[in-house]
User: Fold these one by one.
Assistant:
Number 1:
Amino acid sequence: VHSSENHGHWESFTATISVGGIARRATAVQNIRKEGGNVVLVDSGDIAQGTLYYVEHRMVEAREFYGALGYDAVTIGNHEFNFGPKTLADNFVTGAKFGIVSSNLDFASEPSLAGKIPATLVKTVGGEKIGFIGIVWDDFASATSPGPNVKVKNTMDAIKGAVADLDKQGVNKVIALSHRGYEDDVALAAKVEGVDVIVSGHTDTLLGDPAKLDKSLGAPVGAYPTVVKSPSGNPVLVVHANIW
């Protein structure tokens, strides 16, 4: 179960159609969990942005809502840095009751975040180890305020290193939480080995069956999930959430 591009919208609002709201999301997640089976709840970034909630509470509200919903893992989008790395660290990372993962950002030189966000995360679900990695777009700093100390690693190297680390931990089910955009993630899926699912974010891309979608949303860009073959021929599933 995945979300993305919350942008501070804790109440429902009307875009093309009436969408969003943390209460609606909580109800949807609860109903899915009641169906049984093994469920993981994840987010691929831009939880925060400029609503009144965010301006007033600066991500404390995000930390509390996501903890209450029982998120398993989230990654960082560009807007999580809007008030700088220390606000992200103090108001969101510290005290979080869910996993936060980022594989292609280097926080070693940023005192407020050093050692606080791992490059990989492992959760045991239904007796199986599930590995999570997190990636953001390379030029994310152009759209936010991470400061001079947060560095971007080479993304392919970061993914390979993260997958290798998970493999050493006995993990062969890997979910990448990506805030890079749908087209980039489809291309990435064809280049990497060891990733099974890419939960894509950033571009608000509509996916799905045109016959089943609200026509007012327009035509979907691709299938949900979009199935891409890795270099070895293994299927990689790319999913993306659209709310606009």
Note: The chain has a mean pLDDT of 96.
Number 2:
Amino acid sequence: MEFNKLTLLMIPLAIIITWFLLDVVRKLSIKFRVFAVPNERSSHDSIIPATGGVALCISWIILIFIYSVLIEQDIGVELYFYVLAGVLISIVGFYDDLNELPSFVKLLLQIFIFFIISFGDNSLINSFHGVLGIYELSYFESLLFSLFVFIVIVNAINLVDGIDGLSGSLTLFFLIITSYFYFESNYHYSYLVVAFCFSLSVFLFFNYSERKKIFLGDTGSLGLGLCVAVLSLGYLNTDHPTYNLFPINQPLFVVLMIAYPLLDVIRVFILRIYNGKSFMMADRNHIHHKLIDIGLSHKKAVFVIILSQLSLLTFNVIIIPQINLHIQILINGFIIASLLLFLYRIPNK
């Protein structure tokens, strides 16, 4: 099928299916009382349905089925591993929403899910791409480092889901850039990623709505984390179709695409350990909470975060793309350290 026909088919389907499922799941959530109840860490003060992730999971599975069966029958077998991993991590998230799984159990389940996706083609990081002068990795090194990156990204996206629209907007930002590179490389997942973008946009409409408001819950934030993690691991594999398409060093570009969640989770963990708390203990010390505390609305806080991430990425791609990689990393480190010092001086409410 031609580009226009695929687009005309997948985009309306993504919007209609996601809208319908969000509406149905929201009503079922109210009926069965599956809510996010406000506590001292919450940025909302009312009871909100927390099953948006369930609707997204089901809608994305339907979109994958339509795309793989009716449109692109030659999609690789790795897609089925990713679907299985997505279903499993959504189940973990949904159970955690209902009963709050112990952190150690959740970590073990995430490790198990990682080994499922590791069976897919081009699903592991096999090179450092020159960072620290390292290039090719052995299979064992590749497996261990990919596991570490996977766990960090999944939990980073999950942990920043503290204000309306943040996890969804960060994932949408990542998927929009991904769709560009996928089209540039003529990758067969291109139209599917575009469908996910529109599906996620529908969720964000509900998430920001006053009358139809619904949260992702851990079901959704872990699922989105899985999506970003899988795509990131693929980018860092030298056999991936997008290899060598990036305007700057590949690992640096990927880190900049998810700079905020990575930076926030590292910062929060360091502060918890410094203050003598468990690094797994939830608190209200994230950067987005700081922005809310200085008077920004949820929408404005998300806008500031996305704009800052886009500005940092643009700075690296347009202003300093030709300088030495490690000097480029040091410049980014200086910029980020300056921002963190400024944020550290803002008192918590």
Note: The chain is about 70% helix and 0% strand.
